[in-house]
Amino acid sequence: MEIGLTETIRALRSDLAQAMADGEGHLVRLRVQSVKLDVQVAVTASKEADGGVKFWVVSGGGKAAEGVTATHTVSLEFTAERADGGSILTSSGRAALLED
Question: Coil, strand or helix: which one is 61?
């Protein structure tokens, strides 16, 4: 099964949004400053008319597809922010008493 780089980033964004929603109302929340994603990707080139170059994430149990010439490690670093540019805050998973 091929998992596209777009789908991988979409799933990461969705999980961060869920973590942000889960943090609402908690006393302790964590600020996400950056997110680093290291993935193994394969590059394929299609000879079809609408083809081109495609990046897809290599899964642990995946088989090499015909035409795959190499895999590469790609490191992507994101700054997480809300649509309005504000910071992302997620829950710590437990409440805590903070003292000054």
Answer: coil
Nearest Cα residue to 1 out of 48, 50, 86, 61? 61
Per-residue pLDDT reduced to its tens digit, 14-58: 998 898 888 888 888 888 888 888 888 887 776 665 667 777 787
Q: Sign of torsion, CA 56 62 66 70?
A: positive
Separation CA 33–CA 74 (nearest Å): 20
Is the pTM higher than 0.85? The answer reads no
Q: What is the mean pLDDT of residues 76-84?
A: 82
Instruction: Kindly write down the DSSP assignment for every residue of 4-60, as one continuous string.
Output: EHHHHHHHHHHHHHHHHHHHTT-S-EEEE--EEEEEEEEEEE--STT--EEEEEPPT
Q: Enter the tokens of residue 64.
A: 């090499």
